Structure formats: structure tokens, C-alpha cells
């Protein structure tokens, strides 16, 4: 390779590198543009009410938060996700068999949330329940806890 | 009178249609018609060769474009107004139900016709050299059709819309590595909400239709450039093997010597392109088999257009597009079923989200795309193609069977329930 050929090759390489990086950066910018910087969505931590609002026995279903709140006389409070781990449908709790049933593809979850039947890949989530200073119960959907977790009030 | 004639002749420059020159110029000099050849083979006009499925699909797409633009006038893409607007279209807007019905039935018809068109092209071997790439474009057009159907489903913001999109985007999240991000990108958030509706709206009315139009243009152009329609199978005889030379593709013969350019000579393209031109030169016996596109092809196309529009209009008078109750994130309908053409996918997903929702569909699409390149058999005779005919037929039957099972044999909780057994809705 002589000097002239070397420069010709170098300029070509620089040109192709510049083109590739311009295309790459533009594509990355488009993807970043499509990712919202702010999500105007409800907070993951929220208060659900006074302990006394919740009856013993069958769980209370909170519509907007999509959780079941359980209250047990001996063990205390717990909150289970109502979102099926398969494809996000809302499960229903049947008091007849104490299980969660998903209407979309027939997944069945046991009382502790574990998968008993159907295509769901993992158990239902249980969320941390704590008591706020004002006495209200607070659920944090970012904190997943084991199904044995209970809050005694 | 001279002025009127002058105006007419400034618009229409061709000779009278009573002459052959006029019939040719009608095609050559018209931007909309010149995608046609001036003359077509008689055998290619036969209904039983193509069933005009490509034309029907295209005409359904035209219906979808026009009714879709009309519907946009009364539709706001944010909840809960979107649902309100659907109710207005149903009960308040003049001809609203009719337009919405036309849009819905044309969309269903398009899914069916694209699929049937693909089957026709497969069984007549029309994807073989030199038409391989146009088959690939066709598969992409099938995917776009399904994508448009899927994004259109969310817009009414009813229960069906909400849960179809929830399930659909969650299937996307099972894709390896990028799944979660893909879902977030599609939804513009973590759950199906305002941002998701707006994004699906943009996809449905701008992004996907633009791609559809661009690829449709390429698809039609390639039909011409790949040598027009393939000969009907019943015209194939073993003596004469059809050899077509694609313009731009390297010819097997040595390139013609191009004479040195002289200053007072202008060259036509035919002197530069090597190989046998596809349309202009035909052998005398082939010439006898051709007719002018005007009127033979155009009249047939017009009849198909009118039949398509009439059928969709008639359906829209008597069958109403369903609209369920307002989307309710708290209550999943039981059973929650996708539109019929996705019920095969939903059936697969009910067994495994990763295998059925991501791996199997991806393999199916890859297999479809690869057919013209993997099938090395050049024969178009059905008798020589036993294996691939079986494979493709199994693919078609399996897809139909999954859709039938998902549609008629799945009850509440996706349990296997034969259609003749009545299940009391809501019983838990």
C-alpha cells in the first residue's frame, strides 16, 4: 500500500465510521425519545385505609390498586397481587375453594399464591403491608415479600 | 366548442380508444394505470387462476383507508372519551354505525383475503424464481395487516380492547432480553392506559398505514418487474420451460455490445438492458394469447371492486360490529377472548407464554419468509412438490384448527368446553 492508497482507504474508513455512528446515535435517540421521561402513573406506595375497614374472612378486593387485602384473626394483614403472572389478566378469588382463578388462560393459584394449574410461570406477588403514622395501612408494591408475611396490628 | 376540445385534449392526450394505439396509450400515459401492462395474457385473466384475491385485498384496504379517515373525524384517542365517541358513532353520528361496520368487516375480510392470497401464491408456485423477494414482501404485508388489526382493536377502549392489548403486550414482554423494554415502549408506561391508547392510535393511523402503502407499491411494482402474473399451472407443459429474465438481474447470455455514444443519438433503455425484455417482445403464438388491458383487464378489475364494496356494504347493513362495555381494568371478562384471528395464538399462549407466544410465532414467520429460498425445487407441477405441499397444508390446517379450538371449544377459565354445552355465564 502506498501513501496515496493509504489516505484513500483512511478517508473511506473515516466516512463509513461517521455514517455508522450517525445512524446508530439517531436510532438510539429515537428509542430514547419513545421512552417517557416521566410516568404519570399512580404511585406504587399508597394507603388503603384503617385496619378496622377490613373484615375477617374473604379478602377485600381493591379495584384501582388491583390487590386483595386479607385479614386473619390470628395472623394479621397481608396483600396479594390480583395481576396474573402469565399475561396480566385480573384474577378472581373464589371463596368456594380459597383459590385464585385467572379467566384468560385458566391459571389457578393456591391460597398462598403458588401456581397449581395452568400456564402461569410463577406465583402471585405478595406486597409489604405496614402501618403509617396516622394509623392507616400502607401497601408498597415495589416491595415483594414472602407469602408468609403478615402484619399484626 | 374548440375550447372544450382543447381542454379535453390537454387532459387526455391519447388517441381514441377505438384504435390499438389509443388502447396502449391509455395505459402508458396514465400515472394510475401504467402499473398495468398494455396487453395481458388471456389465461391470466381467468378467475380460477388467481381468484382475484390480491385485487380484493387491495380494494378492502382502500375501503379501510376511506372509512378510517371518516371515523377519525369523530374519534378522540384518550380514555374515557374514546369510548364515549364510539357510543356517539353508534347512536348519534349520521351513518356512524354503517361506517364503523364497514371498517370492521373490511378489516376482517382483509385478514382472510391476505391469507387466502398467500395460499394461492403458494399452491401455484408463484413464489419461485424470480419472484422470491416479492413473496417476502407479501409476508411482511401479512404481518402489517395483523399489526393494523391489533392496534385497531384497542381504539374503542371497551373491555375487549383493554384485555386484548393487556394480554398482547404481555406476550411481547416474554421476548428474551428486550421483552420488558418492548412492552414499556409500546405502552408508554407500565400498564395499559392513556399513553398506550395514544401510541396505538399513532401506530394505527399513521405509522403502519404508511408502511403498508409503501410496501404495497413495491409489491405491485415487483409483480410487473418479475414478469407479470405466473402462468396458470394448467398451462404448464414439460416441453416449454418458462424462462424469465428480470431486468437488472445478471443475464446468462453475454451482455450486448453497446455502441459508442454519438452526439446526435439518444438511447432508449432497451439498448442498455440485456436479456429478453419481459413485456414487449412475445413470440407470435404468445401474441395470439394476449389481449389489450383495456377493456379486458380493467372491466374485470372494476367488477371485482364493485363486488367487494357491495359485499362489505351489504354486510354492514345487517351485521353490527360488536362493542363491549367500557374498559374496566379491575374486571377481566371470563373468558377473555382475543379477536378470532388471534385465537390460535391465544390457544398457544394458554399452554406456554414463551414457547407459544414468542418462539412458535417467530419460527412460523421465519419459515414463511424462508420458503422461496429453502425450496430448491424449480418444478411448478403439483406432482413434483409432494413434500412441501404437505408441509404447507399442515401449517394451514394447524393454524385453522387452533383458531377453531380457541373460538368454539374454550369456555370460562379457558376450560375445554364443546360448543354444544351451555355454560351459565358468571357462574363461579
Protein model, in words:
- In chain A, 21% of the residues lie in helices and 30% in strands.
- The model of chain A has no long low-confidence stretch (mean pLDDT 90).
- Chain A has one helix spanning 3-34; strands at residues 45-49, 60-62, 67-72, 76-81, 92-94, 99-101, 108-109, 115-117, 126-131, 137-145.
- By secondary structure, chain B is mostly helical.
- Residues 238-247, 255-259 and 267-281 of chain B have low confidence and may be disordered.
- Classes of the chains: A alpha+beta (153), B mainly alpha (428).
- The interface between A and B is medium-sized, with 29 and 36 residues.
What's a concise summary of this model?
Helix content of chain A is 21%, strand content 30%.
Please give the structural blueprint.
The complex is a heterodimer of chains A (153) and B (428).
Chain A: H1 3-34, E1 45-49, E2 60-62, E3 67-72, E4 76-81, E5 92-94, E6 99-101, E7 108-109, E8 115-117, E9 126-131, E10 137-145
Antiparallel strand pairs in A: 1-10, 2-3, 3-4, 4-9, 5-6, 6-7, 7-8, 9-10
Chain B: H1 2-11, H2 20-28, E1 39-41, H3 47-50, H4 53-72, H5 81-91, H6 96-123, H7 132-154, H8 159-172, H9 179-187, H10 194-225, H11 284-288, E2 290-292, H12 293-318, H13 343-349, H14 353-374, H15 386-408
Antiparallel strand pairs in B: 1-2
Helix pairs in contact in B: 4-6, 4-12, 6-7, 6-12, 7-8, 7-10, 7-14, 13-14, 13-15
Largest pleated sheet of chain A: 6 strands, antiparallel
Q: Residue-averaged pLDDT of chain A, rounded?
A: 90
Percentage of residues in helical conformation of chain B:
55-70%
Main β-sheet of chain B: number of strands, strand sense, barrel status? 2 strands, antiparallel
Mean pLDDT of chain B: 86
What ranges of chain A have pLDDT less than 50 throughout 5 or more consecutive residues? Answer: none
The CATH C-level class name of the largest domain in chain A: Mainly Beta
Amino acid at each position: 500500500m502506498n501513501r496515496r492508497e493509504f489516505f484513500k482507504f483512511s478517508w473511506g474508513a473515516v466516512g463509513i465510521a461517521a455514517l455508522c455512528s450517525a445512524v446508530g446515535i439517531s436510532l438510539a435517540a429515537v428509542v430514547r425519545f419513545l421512552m417517557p421521561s416521566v410516568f404519570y402513573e399512580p404511585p406504587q406506595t399508597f394507603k388503603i385505609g384503617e385496619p378496622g375497614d377490613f373484615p375477617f374472612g374473604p379478602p377485600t378486593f381493591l379495584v384501582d390498586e388491583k390487590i386483595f387485602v386479607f385479614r386473619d384473626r390470628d395472623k394479621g394483614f397481608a396483600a396479594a397481587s390480583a395481576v396474573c403472572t402469565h399475561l396480566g389478566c385480573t384474577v378472581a378469588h373464589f371463596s368456594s375453594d380459597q383459590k385464585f382463578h385467572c379467566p384468560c388462560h385458566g391459571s389457578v393459584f393456591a391460597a398462598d399464591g403458588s401456581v397449581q394449574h395452568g400456564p402461569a410461570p410463577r406465583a402471585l406477588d405478595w406486597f409489604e403491608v405496614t402501618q403509617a403514622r396516622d394509623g392507616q395501612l400502607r401497601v408498597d408494591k415495589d416491595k415483594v415479600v414472602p407469602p408468609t408475611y403478615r402484619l399484626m396490628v | 366548442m374548440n375550447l372544450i376540445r382543447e381542454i379535453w385534449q390537454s387532459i387526455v392526450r391519447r388517441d381514441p380508444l377505438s384504435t390499438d394505439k389509443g388502447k396502449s396509450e391509455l395505459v402508458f400515459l396514465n400515472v394510475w394505470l401504467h402499473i398495468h401492462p398494455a396487453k395481458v395474457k388471456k389465461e391470466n385473466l381467468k378467475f380460477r387462476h388467481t381468484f382475484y384475491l390480491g385485487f380484493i385485498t387491495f380494494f378492502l384496504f382502500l375501503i379501510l383507508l376511506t372509512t378510517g379517515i371518516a371515523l377519525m373525524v369523530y374519534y378522540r384517542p384518550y380514555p374515557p372519551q374514546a369510548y364515549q365517541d364510539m357510543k356517539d358513532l353508534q347512536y348519534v353520528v349520521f351513518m356512524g354505525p354503517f361506517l364503523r361496520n364497514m371498517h370492521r368487516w373490511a378489516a376482517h375480510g382483509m385478514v382472510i383475503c391476505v391469507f387466502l392470497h398467500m395460499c394461492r401464491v403458494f399452491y401455484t408456485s408463484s413464489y419461485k424464481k424470480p419472484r422470491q423477494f416479492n413473496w417476502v414482501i407479501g409476508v411482511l404485508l401479512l404481518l402489517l395487516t395483523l399489526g393494523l388489526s391489533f392496534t385497531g382493536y384497542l381504539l374503542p377502549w371497551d373491555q375487549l380492547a383493554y384485555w386484548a392489548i393487556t394480554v398482547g403486550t404481555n406476550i411481547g414482554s416474554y421476548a428474551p432480553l428486550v421483552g420488558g423494554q418492548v412492552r414499556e415502549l409500546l405502552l408508554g408506561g407500565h400498564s395499559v392506559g392513556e399513553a398506550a391508547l395514544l401510541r396505538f392510535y399513532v401506530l394505527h393511523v399513521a405509522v403502519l398505514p404508511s408502511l403498508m402503502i409503501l410496501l404495497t407499491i413495491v409489491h405491485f411494482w415487483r409483480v410487473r418487474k418479475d414478469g407479470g402474473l405466473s402462468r396458470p399451472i394448467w398451462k404448464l407443459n414439460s416441453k416449454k420451460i418458462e424462462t424469465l429474465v428480470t431486468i437488472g438481474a445478471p443475464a446468462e447470455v453475454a451482455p450486448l455490445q453497446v455502441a459508442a455514444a454519438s452526439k446526435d443519438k439518444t438511447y432508449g433503455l432497451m439498448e442498455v438492458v440485456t436479456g429478453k425484455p419481459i413485456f414487449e417482445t412475445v413470440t407470435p403464438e404468445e401474441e395470439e394469447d394476449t389481449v389489450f388491458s383495456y377493456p379486458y383487464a380493467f372491466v374485470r378489475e372494476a367488477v371485482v371492486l364493485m363486488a367487494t364494496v357491495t359485499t362489505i356494504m351489504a354486510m354492514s347493513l345487517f351485521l353490527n360490529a360488536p362493542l363491549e362495555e367500557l374498559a374496566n381494568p379491575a374486571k377481566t371478562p371470563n373468558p377473555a377472548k382475543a379477536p378470532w384471528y388471534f385465537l390460535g395464538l391465544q390457544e398457544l399462549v394458554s399452554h406456554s407464554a414463551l414457547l407459544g407466544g414468542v418462539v412458535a410465532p417467530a419460527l412460523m414467520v421465519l419459515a414463511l419468509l424462508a420458503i422461496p429460498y429453502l425450496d430448491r425445487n424449480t418444478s411448478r407441477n403439483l406432482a413434483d412438490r409432494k413434500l412441501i405441499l404437505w408441509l404447507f397444508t399442515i401449517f394451514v390446517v394447524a393454524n385453522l384448527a387452533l383458531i377453531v379450538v380457541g373460538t368454539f371449544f374454550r369456555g370460562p377459565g379457558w376450560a375445554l368446553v364443546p360448543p354444544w354445552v351451555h355454560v351459565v355465564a358468571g357462574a363461579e
